[in-house]
Amino acid sequence: MAIDLHLAIAHHLLIFILFGILVTELVLVHQNMTDGDIKRLTSIDLWYGLVALLILMVGFSRAIFAAKGWAYYSVNSFFWAKIGVFLLIALLSIWPTVKYLSWHRNFQAAGSRPDTSSVSVVRRILWLEMILFAFLPAFAAAMARGYGQ
Predict the structure, then answer these.
(1) The pTM is what?
(2) Engineering a disulfide at 67: which of 4, 13, 79, 83 sits with its beta carbon 3.0 to 4.6 angstroms away?
(3) Does the residue 149 lie in any domain?
């Protein structure tokens, strides 16, 4: 029973951390970014990827080894919807990551700031990730209460 509790705590804390990182990226991406802002973004984005990977590892450990077990989760449509949304967020996050690295290279090579349109696109993607993120706790709550069986 203790493993169930520990995995649940870790999973929830990691989700909150990931959301905080996403909010931080949204705050840092703006039209007048400095080299320091861009460097910060690239290192924060690395943490975004690492935390997302940890969430998957802990989440699947929870689904397999914790109280309800894989038999419960594997047939739950809200579980798979939650996984699908999480993976969609992960796919969407690729574009901002690519842009952060590109902006960093361009700033170091030529001192040029990101262009207005690419900053706008990245901000729209980050907002879309935020909107999709809201579905995760909704699906988790439904799943935990037996919906989706």
Answers:
(1) 0.91
(2) 4
(3) no
